[in-house]
Amino acid sequence: MAASLTELHTVAEVRSELSRLRDDTGREGQPVGRTSLLTLVAWVPPQWQEAAGSTLEGLAHEQPSRAILLMPRAEIAAERSHADAPPWSAQVTLRAIDGAAGCVAAEVVTIDLARAAGAASIVLPLVRSDLPVFLRWRGPLPEDAEPFGALLGVADRLIIDSREWAGPGAGYAALRAAFGEVAVSDISWRRLEPWRRAVAEQGRPAGPSVRMAVDGPALEARLLAAWLGSRLRAHVTLEHREDEHVTRVAVDDEPIRQPRRTHRSSSALLSGELNQLNRDPIYEEAACALSSVTI
Amino acid sequence: MTESQLADDANPLLAGLAGPRTPDPCALVIFGASGDLSRRKLLPALYALARNGLLPDAFAVLGVGRTEMTDAGFQAHMRGAIEQHGRFAFDEDVWRELAAGMRYVAAGLDDESAGGPVTDALKALERERGTAGNRVFYLAVPPAAMEDVVAAIGTWRPAGGWRRLIVEKPLGHDLASARQLNAFVLERFFESEVFRIDHYLGKETVQNLAVLRFANGIFEPVWNRQFIDHVQITAAESIGIGSRGAFYEHTGATRDIFQNHLLQLLALTAMEPAADFTADAVRNEKVKVFKSLDRPGLEQLVRGQYGPGFVEGGEVRGYREEEEVASESVTETYFAAKLYVDNWRWAGTPFYVRCGKRLARQETTIAIQFKRAPHLPFALDSDDDARPNVLLIHIQPDEGVSMTLNAKVPGYGVTIRGVNMDFAYGGAFRTDLPEAYERLILDALLGDAILFTRADEVEEQWALVDAIRAHWQADPDGLAGYVAGSWGPSNADALIHGDNRSWRRH
User: Fold this and answer.
1) Same structural domain for residues B164 and B216?
2) Prediction ipTM score
3) Contact between chains at A102 and B426 (C-beta distance less than 8 A)
4) Number of inter-chain CB pairs under 8 A, A vs B
5) Which residues does chain A have within 8 Å of residue B398's beta carbon, measured at their own beta carbons?
6) Which residue of B has its CA nearest to A33?
């Protein structure tokens, strides 16, 4: 792995450092391939940095493209309180990953932000041309527009994990607004897929209202119920018991066959979302129907 | 209930849940289960499918072989095979689930009464596992045993369930025997029930060839005689015949590789776009290519046999010194041909194909060489400085696609060099590529025959091989020697040099 030794403060410095590291890495052994699929922009507040680091580590092996990590850091803002201080600093690391097909580069640009405003203006010149840009937003979506709105303007797809949200508050309002602008993925929605399939295979419940019981994380339970209601155009009453993962589902008191257990790392889940480019209207309908679920 | 049945019910809950295709409940019966193919390929492939959640919940494997083994012995044997040859770390949970439905019967099927123990075990397993009478028979048996097995299982048509038959090459040794075998099989199975494996078709890059051609607007307009100078298809192996001397003596490179793998690659390269990507639509187009292939004259053919030499630094013996090979053998270990596809798209465009053992290195590629730029407005020492563009499709190893372009060398003058743009599958998509057998077994369980060959394809392929071999019978002294570790006999070079072209060197 090659990494920049100095702090970088301009986009030109970052780009120059990326080129230099790529050349150096190539000289160490075989040439580094540059096949790229995408740019991943990740908004990573401090409490998510450890989780984001391990996800990215695995992701580099599956989707060796350019990742731009935006780290909003309040303490940096305090340190840089004088007017001339640079608003951001960056580090570049480049991992040459050996594989059966040779060596490819996974580029990671880590940007410490003293202020959130203007983040999109750093990202825009650094994204790979003509390739999709995915915005992974860690934690709840903000109520205020910046920098979420501007970063969303750069992205083709927004990826969230509603399991990271404390509850179905204002985040869903921001999410519903995003539906009109970009495609959206929710990693929790993907986790629910085996259960959704199992419920579908059970057959369609009769009647205008449905009772659903779910043991699992609160938002996932609610999302599952909202999906059922939106697909059936029915009113759903949810009985929820908290659990770490969804472990039990029943519809109108009929237990749903537990789907086969699958082990998918956070990297694999994110990688799966990075292969999705189209809008998911089923998810969008379900997310919009969350408030109609009675608990 | 299958996904398609659910969709038929217009279940709104199913919308957006396309996901991975999962086969119907079924039992897979492997004949030759104690053999090398089962150990090295079939069971590791089944394990990979199980690990990825692609097998149905109600699934069973019944191994049938001549080796005496108990169920537990078979399971232990297959566990060892998966641990040794599987591409994933061994997971006890996945194995436990797969092994729970795994049984073994020691039996041959060379007389009518021998089927009893197999059908008894199969029925018991079907009841236990709930596989609904759906059966897939996999014939991993030597060619001599194929008809006996087909004759026996041809009568086992379950009530209510479906059945499928997977067969491995060689499917005959000439047109007459292929026709006879097809007729024998088709008296007992419908064509739609027969899945003839050519494992090259399970490779990711071979499938990508169709995507490359038909999902990219830039290629198809130039994929014809107007823009393509010629095509080279190479299937080179550095290994020798190993312990297969007796088999290879009666086969040779033409029957072993050209008749199936090379001709399939040629057909996929040359075929017209199918109306849709379904089995019969694609196979119809491939058959049209085979029917359009001009019968080559003797001057378009080269056959050779390797002598002693060095391969990858090691000294190796010549073919005639290999075990179970006759000292005066005239079996070809190398074959090259210049073929023409006589249709509007390809008229006059040569397809140079070659395959062989003990060549310089292992590599299977399709090279599409475009015509040179018609005029070079640069002051160059030679027009040769600007090389023709080549689109190179790597089948194995290092699956991927590369394109050579001409670029200006940085500096004050104009110097042109060819540069490669590489798309390596493993570089862009880091997920491990599925083994060919994983994809093919899954497709057979699903009933999707697009990657399998049809009876008429096989017969067309043999018809061409028969025409080639007829020349050789008239020219018994035409076998050329080549040094092991080289790129084949010198007259193969002459074949292409005569057209002012040359084989790709790597």
Assistant:
1) no
2) 0.77
3) yes
4) 76
5) 100-102
6) B427
CA distances from B165 to B42, B78, B150, B445 (A): 15, 22, 9, 10
Query: Cα–Cα–Cα angle for B379, B381, B384, nearest 5°?
Result: 105
B148/B68 same-domain check: yes
Range of the domain at B249: 201-374+453-497
Omega before residue B273 within 30° of 0, cis: no
Query: What total number of domains does chain B contain?
Result: 2
> What ranges do the domains of chain A cover?
2-155, 190-292
- Closest partner residue to A101 among B1, B16, B400, by Cβ? B400
Residue B192 is assigned to a structural domain of this protein: no
Dihedral of the alpha carbons of B154, B158, B160, B165, in degrees to the nearest 10 = -40
For residue B431, the chain A residue with the least C-alpha distance is A62
- The closest of A166, A124, A162 to A283, measured between CA atoms, is A162
Q: CA-nearest residue of chain A to B52? A: A262
pLDDT for B2 equals 47
Has B261 been annotated as catalytic?
Answer: yes
Label residue A271 by pLDDT band (50, 70, 90). Answer: confident
Query: Could you give the CA distance from residue B247 to residue B37 in angstroms, rounded to a whole number?
Result: 16
Contacts of B53 in chain A (CB under 8 A): 260, 262
pLDDT band at B71 (very low <50, low <70, confident <90, very high): very high
Secondary structure, 3-state, B279-305: HHHHHHHHHHHHHHECCCCHHHEEEEE
